[in-house]
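Sanity check. The docking grid for magnesium ion depends on where the pocket ends up, so I'm generating a full predicted complex first rather than guessing from homology. Inputs follow.
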Amino acid sequence: MSKSLQAIRGMNDILPEQTPLWRYFEGTVARLLDNYGYRQIRMPIVEFTELFKRSIGEVTDIVEKEMYTFDDRNGDSLTLRPEGTAACVRAVLEHGITGGGQVQKLWYIGPMFRHERPQKGRYRQFHQIGLEVFNLDGPDIDAELIVMTWRLWGELGLRDAVKLELNSLGTSESRGRYREALVEFLSAHLDKLDEDSQRRLKTNPLRVLDTKNAETQAVLVDAPKMADYLDDESRVHFEGLKARLDAVGIPYVINPKLVRGLDYYSKTVFEWVTDKLGAQGTVCAGGRYDGLVEQMGGKPTPGVGFAMGIERLVLMLEALDKVPEELSRQVDVYLCAFGEAAELAALSLSERIRDQLPNLRLQINAGAGSFKSQFKKADKSGALYALILGDDELAQQVVGFKPLRGQGEQQSIAWDALAAHLATCVVQG
Ligand code: ATP
Ligand code: MG
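Predicted complex below; grid placement will be based on this.
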């Protein structure tokens, strides 16, 4: 196939074999968020480029080198969203739904776009479920976000495979003081820093902390520590968060080098990481961003949120064999009809059954091939039962009811009794 007719590198089709697992994951998260009182918001996937520059920060990896930016036909610079927070903040401001201190607990789901080097767990179109809370400034809400994700890992069977890392970046004032101290320290060791870190020292010095370069990491061992610069307010907030996690029994490690790639964080930052996915170990990440709304032209509004990468979590469910058994079966009953008159009867019969059993997963295969080939398809579909409707059955107004998974002999069931019979033998979700 010519290259221009293939999917773009790093942008993947999610094939029918994979969608049941995606839907299971997305459905589990959606139900959980509903239960905690979060409401879904849907933003466009394209915004003005300026929105992301202003909110994410000019000297972040995302804005410097990862955005899909293009000119609209009228000359506006637009960008495919690289993340959800900026657009969510834009939306709440535009609709005034955080005004007057109104609390909003929102979540969203959808594709994000970043021009990164594609590899396992890292794509150019990827999907996130994200969540943002506005106008709650206490550690209790930071804790709620983490508690919810902990519950999610529990439901998915992933608890043993993830680890929570926490840090506090302090208020922007204390972070400013820390930044100065860090710059002073690093400037004295300039020759030992890798090239990227030398550049970041000038543009975004905190990012030097999460360098992957071993020599730079060695220098950092003696660098000033953020914890020593935390203001009292941030310290109390952080202690409050830790006390809540302790109360629920959620284990965590403090990672003083956790700074997150985006400019807008303050106080709490956290990441859920795993060692089951190789280099792409962060499955969920977030933090507090009390200054962002104001920075984007709104009134001072505390905010906190996180985003999780769906691809990475789906990969984890597969790698750890946590795909629920029932996902392999998408059909309960497979109806095979033979002959024109039987086909007609099969259609109206199946509609009657659907009326009575709206959750039944009934697939009808009429007129396609021999008895043998239809039966093969019924079996391959994973269905529990096949229904057989030929001329003989039509004449007697019955169907042949054949268990496909070794649950007894074939029997004959009258059309009128069929729905009731199915209700007893197919457990419906
Ligand atoms: P990383 O350090 O892996 O690049 P990040 O800090 O850039 O992640 P965030 O912007 O915080 O990631 O996004 C939150 C989550 O979205 C990540 O933890 C990850 O699970 C997922 N994610 C981010 N970028 C990608 C990508 N290119 N492909 C797949 N998932 C991604
Ligand atoms: Mg990244």
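Relevant for the grid: The pocket of magnesium ion (ligand 2) is lined by residues 261 (CB under 6 Å).
Also worth noting: Residues 336 and 369 are 10 Å apart (CA to CA).
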